[in-house]
Amino acid sequence: MMAWTYLIILMATDRLARLHAVSYSFYKSHDFFHKYPSFTIDERWTNMMKLFLSSLTDCFIKAAEFKKEEYKMLFSTLESNKDALTEKLGDMPTNPKKLKIPCLAHGDYWTNNMMFQYDNDVSTDQMFPPHNIMMIDWGNTMFRDPLLDLQYLIYTSTTLSLRKQHLEEILHHYHSTFTTTTNDLGVRVNNWDFQDFMEDWNNTRYFGCIMGALNNILTLSKAGGKYQKQRGSISSNKFKAKIEIKLSKLLIGPMTKLFLHPSMQKVAVDMMLKPFKKIIMELESCDEKTQSRVFDLFNEAWQQGVFDV
Ligand SMILES: *[C@@H]1O[C@H](CO)[C@@H](O)[C@H](O)[C@H]1NC(C)=O
Q1: For residue 89, which of 148, 146, 171 has the smallest C-alpha distance?
Q2: Where exactly are the structural domains of the chain?
Q3: 235 CB under 6 A from ligand 1?
Q4: What is the CATH number of domain 1-41+98-203?
Q5: 167 lines ligand 1 (CB under 6 A)
Q6: 3-class DSSP assignment, residue 287
Q7: What is the pTM of this model?
Q8: Which residue positions does the secretion signal occupy (predicted)?
């Protein structure tokens, strides 16, 4: 199983690097926003993201209270540095002119948003490892720091032991695929050798840790599972379902505009996070696997100095 997971993550990293590299090359050589006006930039997103992360951090600190003794230094450091950490991440610009590597980022790239192509032997029921991956669910795609996608993929979709064994290789693979692809397309990337890339990786680690912890608890905990089921269900009545879909399509534009307004951002983030926070606060009653995934993420980041400022 371990080998399969590694293979999948490597393939997923490969696809991601190509998406980033192709859109980067296109941006550098064409008028991207003329051709694709729907990807216009909204800088208010950065502020929303900051509020989102800092609110989640607060919640995790509270929810981890029951392991206070074991992780004393970790959570007290996080408590004192959380504002500086989110502030630092707040530099994540969405304006392509301010981005070091302006490219299209998927925005929700983890194993649940991939489709796998694999062979199986019907006579023996044997399954073979996937040989192809398709990215799906492009609803959050926008111009932003490509490393946010990579952080999200790694820390939502791998275990600590996989990272210990393979992370370095995966990061090298991402970087070399990005560089080769842009080269093939005739676009030079300046000031982004592996060392520069690693600096950017280190600077976005905090994002990976928090989003990874959130995603793990939403996916693995019982309360999270229940929430996802509810959210995913649409009315079984066909007519009612049609109206629900139409209505949500109609509302989503104006609602987004309203919520992105600076005066509304905090309210919007609180509303968005309310169900998540409830689930996070149940960390103490989660099973051991969920808990260890979450604490692994925090502990690993802590040991790598991610919470130091
Ligand atoms: C990134 O952080 C690690 C600690 O996890 C450190 O060993 C490494 O030197 C850092 N790399 C760069 C390029 O800053």
Answers
A1: 148
A2: 1-41+98-203, 44-90+236-309
A3: no
A4: 1.10.510
A5: no
A6: coil
A7: 0.90
A8: 1-19
